[in-house]
Amino acid sequence: MKRIGIIGAGAIARVHAERWKQMPGVELAGYYDILPDAAQRAVDQYGGRVFGSMDEMFAYVDAVDICTTAVAHKEAVLAGAAAGVPMVCEKPLARHLSDCYEMVEAVERTGTPLFVAQVVRFFPQYAKAKETLESGALGKPAVIRTVRGGSMPRAGSTFHSGYYADFNQSGGVILDVSIHDIDYVRWCFGEVERVFARGLMFAGLPKDHTLITLRFENGAIGHIEGSWAFPPNKFRTRVEIAGTDGLLEWDSLDRNPLEMTLHDPEVGPDVTTSSASPLATADDPYYAELSHFVDALDRKKPFLVTPYDGLMAVKISLAAIESERRGEPVRIRDFNA
């Protein structure tokens, strides 16, 4: 039985706790939060105990799940690295790039396992799209387009907090929402050469919306739309990958499975096929990512998302924010803010 402790007792911690409770071979040991009452409420709902400090938790558990806000990730990761306790850390890895470098250096120096929870890699449709791309069925990668958007978190919603409206803490829609797609498109198409973004982040409006264009080192192009300007209770995601031999697309607004159109001049007209979800309904992406963490630890295998992947997702996101601020492209290699 592997004992897991959760640091932080907010909304995403509840999402994780529900999955840990379902997982065989795992005991949810309890919570640590800077607000003891919040930790107690989580314990009352999910079980375990309230820990009085991170050090107290580290001494008791086999691994920790860091579910604080991004501005608090650094403290928890550095403490976990010093204790040598394997860690899951929610995205983004940190609010600032310098903190990411410090965190990655700490886990590398101490040899402490750190898995960054970029959950979109574990969504069935996105995982199947990546698998199809790698199979060569689409030919040479050319364009990848994604959409991820909902309404601005507000009072009464699960994830409501003044945190999201405070750019200095959340990083706005790019660092909180679009970072999912930034990580995914980099996973699919490789390193990014430069980024150009336009949006509402600095327009003084109560909404946030961004359009991001990426040029990859292999010459391919990425387009990402991220939004907190959709109608309430409407959340949409979409992925489309175009290659020299075909097109693959999925949209959450449609109930259809992943759809792929392939072009083969030797066969004749383009052929469109559909595929069912590759995972059972019960195997949701949050369960899948946490199960992957445990399995990789047990088998001493690399994580699907490395600390460096987490760092690069933050770096590209912050470069997009800087591009939006300056109104010009930003080269990733030269960006160190």
Task: Kindly summarize this structure in a few lines.
This protein has 337 residues and is an alpha/beta fold.
- State the distance separating the first and last CA atoms: 43 Å
Q: Kindly identify the CATH topology of the largest domain.
A: Dihydrodipicolinate Reductase, domain 2
Q: What is the highest CATH level, the class of the largest domain?
A: Alpha Beta
Identify the overall geometry. Answer: globular
**Beta-strand percent range:** 25-35%
**What value does the average pLDDT take?**
91
CATH architecture classification name of the largest domain: 2-Layer Sandwich
Q: How many strands in all?
A: 15
Query: CATH H-level name of the largest domain... which superfamily?
Result: Dihydrodipicolinate Reductase, domain 2
Q: Which runs of at least 5 residues are low in confidence (pLDDT < 50)? A: 265-279
Work out the radius of gyration: 20 Å
Q: How many domains?
A: 2
**Biggest sheet overview:** 9 strands, mixed
Summarize the helix and strand pattern as letters: EHEHEHEHEHEHEHHHEEEEEEEHHE
Helix content: 25-40%
Strand order of the largest sheet: 14-13-12-11-7-10-9-8-15
Helix run count: 11
What structural class do you assign from the helix and strand content?
Answer: alpha/beta
